[in-house]
Design a protein that fits this description.
Layout: E1 8-19, H1 24-42, E2 47-55, E3 58-66, H2 73-83, E4 87-88, E5 93-94, E6 99-107, H3 109-116, E7 130-137, H4 146-163, E8 175-185, E9 190-201, H5 210-220, H6 230-233, E10 237-239, E11 252-253, H7 258-261, H8 282-299, E12 305-312, E13 321-325, H9 329-334, H10 338-348, H11 353-359
Parallel strand pairs: 3-6, 9-10
Antiparallel strand pairs: 1-8, 2-3, 2-11, 4-5, 7-12, 8-9, 12-13
Helix pairs in contact: 1-2, 8-11
Length: about 375
């Protein structure tokens, strides 16, 4: 006889989506993080807070940088644009001829030190208020929600087959949306029952036929992505709509794809994006710290899934509050309430931005490579 915790108490569908690296919003994330990496490469203590935007034939970077590094911003931006494949006016943007606008206000490190006064670096506040959210679930080995993980992997595979010409008609700017059917058990844990639908929006040559699109994307993308068994795919509805507009006719802004960068809509949302921000900003360090904490709770089997919220106030390094929502799985897994789990985190984790910078190596230039396909649950990065 099945244990009471194994009984299914609810069934529902959940949808997550992701973008390939050349979607205008993701291009902007890459440009902003390329600037951050370039500063950190020369000056690990650099403070960067910048945003990027793009429209046809134009990319702009704006924000503030405090560093002793000497960075050629225009060159860094052109290299980031070229890296994702924008190398022709026919694509709406050419890295060689694009109108590059740099509106960065620079300050010397000694000015930043004067502003922080005599405080030890560990006690310097992040300068703004904000909320950071982290989520983890045991439904996948990566402790990530499968809906988001699968959507991100589909986008990564679309970029791969575009670049190696396995699918020669595929153009820049694809997107993926995945809908899964979930079963919620009495203990609050989740099990994926099946993939209900997969939608791949794949820009294409005008002469390619719909049946060729379906054949190529099923064989070279959907069936080549790991982590989803053929059994889960049985009966899934697969759609391959043609985008109405060229990629670069859209306006792009950094930070707009926050759900795709994190948990695909699960667990709540942070109040700010991470793109273009160094680890002294709670938007970056707090978001990674909250994921680290949530993952630790699940990996330690103190709960089956968890959302961790950290709130920060101006001038204060430590979070004003630490909250945990385990969806009832804490009591079943370890006998601990959400309040007890939050207290455990408060006692064992140092969530000050300076400490998180050290623990998670946030002074290392590594952010451009994770600007697409999500920041978490990756095999090529260690940021929780």
């Amino acid at each position: 006889m099945a244990a009471a915790a194994d009984f299914v108490v609810n069934k529902f569908t959940f949808t997550s989506e992701a973008c390939t690296e050349a979607v205008p919003d993701k291009l902007c994330d890459r440009v902003a993080d390329a600037i951050l990496d370039a500063c950190l490469e020369q000056d690990p203590e650099a403070r960067v807070c910048c945003e990027a935007t793009t429209k046809t034939s134009m990319v702009m970077i704006l924000g503030e940088v405090v560093t002793k590094a000497s960075v050629n911003y225009e060159q860094v931006m052109r290299e980031a644009i070229r890296a994702v494949g924008y190398d022709s006016e026919d694509k709406g943007l050419d890295a060689r001829t694009a109108n590059i606008i740099v509106a960065i206000e620079e300050s010397a490190p000694d000015l930043a030190q004067a502003m922080s006064g005599s405080k030890a670096i560990e006690e310097v506040g992040n300068g703004d208020m904000g909320i950071a959210v982290g989520y983890a679930t045991d439904e996948t080995p990566e402790l990530m929600p499968l809906s988001q993980l699968y959507a991100a992997k589909l986008c990564a595979k679309m970029d791969e087959v575009r670049k190696d010409r396995s699918v020669p008609w595929l153009k820049l700017g694809g997107r993926a949306q995945v809908t899964l059917e979930y079963a919620e058990k009495a203990d609050g844990s989740l099990t994926v029952e099946r993939v209900r639908s997969i939608t791949l929006s794949a820009p294409r040559s005008t002469d390619v036929k719909a049946d060729q699109v379906e054949k190529d994307l099923v064989e070279n993308v959907i069936m080549k992505v790991d982590g989803v068994s053929p059994k889960l795919l049985q009966g899934a509805v697969m759609k391959f709509p043609e985008p109405k507009l060229q990629t670069q006719t859209d306006v792009g802004m950094s930070g707009k794809q926050l759900a795709g960068d994190t948990y695909g809509g699960w667990g709540g949302s942070s109040s700010s994006s991470v793109s273009g921000k160094d680890g002294t900003k709670a938007a970056r360090s707090g978001t990674y710290g909250a994921r680290w904490a949530a993952r630790s709770l699940v990996a330690s089997r103190l709960c089956r899934r968890a959302s961790v919220q950290l709130s920060y106030l101006p001038g204060s390094a430590s979070p004003a509050s630490v909250a945990v929502h385990s969806y009832g799985t804490g009591l079943k897994a370890s006998g601990k309430t959400d309040a007890e789990l939050a207290d455990l985190l408060t006692r064992h984790f140092d969530f000050r931005p300076s400490s998180l910078q050290k623990e998670l190596s946030l002074k290392t230039p590594q952010f451009q490579k994770i600007s697409a396909y999500g920041h978490f649950g990756r095999s090529d990065a260690t940021l929780a």
